[in-house]
Description:
Blueprint: H1 3-9, H2 18-49, H3 54-75, H4 79-82, H5 84-103, H6 108-136, H7 141-148, H8 151-168, H9 174-179, H10 182-192, H11 201-205, H12 209-217, H13 220-248, H14 254-276, H15 281-299, H16 305-319, H17 322-333, H18 338-371, H19 375-394, H20 400-418, H21 426-438, H22 444-472, H23 476-492
Helix pairs in contact: 2-3, 2-6, 2-8, 2-10, 2-13, 3-6, 3-18, 5-6, 5-10, 6-7, 6-18, 7-17, 8-14, 13-14, 13-15, 13-17, 13-18, 13-22, 13-23, 14-16, 15-16, 15-17, 15-22, 15-23, 17-18, 18-21, 18-22, 19-20, 19-22, 20-21, 21-22
Amino acid sequence: MSSTTATLEGNHLPGINADRLFKGSCLALIATAVNFAVMGAIMGPLKEQFILTNEQVGWIGGAGLWGFTLSILIFGPLCDALGMRFLLWLAFVCHFAGVLIMIFATGFTMLLVGQLTIAMGNGLVEAACNPLIATIYPTRKTAKLNQFHVWFPGGIVIGGLAAYLLDKLGIPSWQLKLCVILVPTVIYGRLFIGQKFPKTERLQSGISFSGMVHATLMRPLFLVLLVCMGITASLELGPNRWIPSVLESGGIPGILVLVWISGLMALLRFYAGPVVHRLAPTGILLLSGILSGAGLIWLSYAESTAMAFVSATLFAVGVCYFWPTMLGIASERVPKGGALALALLGGFGNVIVGMVASPQMGTIADRYGHDRLPVVETRAVLQRVTTVYAAAASGEAQTRLAVDVERAREEAQKVLQQATGDSLPMIETANALRTAINCAPNTEEGRAVAAEAKKILGPADNYGGRMSFRYVAPFSIVLILVFGTLWLSDRRKGGYKVETIGDR
């Protein structure tokens, strides 16, 4: 859409530069998406450097989602009172502060707090930008929300490629990858400076806060959408959090697969969106439920790069229209719900992913990955760690490396002491292998032992992660039943109908 057309659509709001506000919103969404991509790219390095379990990494990744929810549920309903300008400047502060906290983190707690702070900024972006776009484009809500949400997968492409190129240039610093988030942050801050923001559509229509709450929570359709949002978000965002680290542990370029998924989603939303959304939105969601479930099941069996990309393509087509179409239906079928309805949908979707789907996927990965560790070979490697690393640690002064090497030896020894027969302790074994890989002594024999540990742990992590995909996929059946019912109901009533604020 040209800037002239966008500006003309905002002419019902004197003094408002709709085009600039829309562009600033898109850049703010890019910042949130770059964080999503970067977190996917650095989960492995964080796990190795700070010796974290899959579950702990899942909690850090999940904080990016339930933190989003915390933010949007607090500030979304207050959007009318505080104003969209205030929320977006607060988002700017959170993005900067969160990146700095993570860069200077010393362990799990600071990483969690830093990601939570960034996530608060992400939630503020959604809390402000969704009602902002619905307000400046009142006759094209679903279309413009889809155009806006092009930049979530688009931002993942940007962040994912930046992380990949840094690795290829020999700059694998996860801290530098986090700094990529600050680039779109600075740009959206510049675009919003000096701009006048409109009142929300609800305020302009004179609907009270209590009226908004009643129109939202007393509509059965909205409650159905709320439950389904938790499932659609889990199908899309849960696996995307894990795809890079899971596939890379199996020798597949996981970050490129995520970039491919996100790039395809962006292209589909941008180019096919105007055509697709001439169809019934409920029909779109029905088809999305079918394709996303099939794609995720297929991806869970991907053991080669070719199979990963092909199955990821089907998965991308399936999840592509979930998020913006859910928001569009709520805006068009529950118009009096305003910022509250949009905030509840986005918030609930993210809290389910952040506090349920992502950590549980990590737990499943830990369990099934442990079952794939070959007991004899694992014990042999850990035994070599206790001898090789002990010799290396005693031969050095008390440097940081010597302390780390000794810690790796102690963890390996602890696992061997806890092992009984053909059984190894579940969490401790994988952690001992990770510590041995990350804290290998700088000797030929030490590097060889670390390589053996990685050769054992990689396939196990890959299998466990793929099994977690397989556990999430069946939830698509619920979506097929619900959206199929809504689609049939719309057809019986003569087709999908958009409501206006004056209809009810």
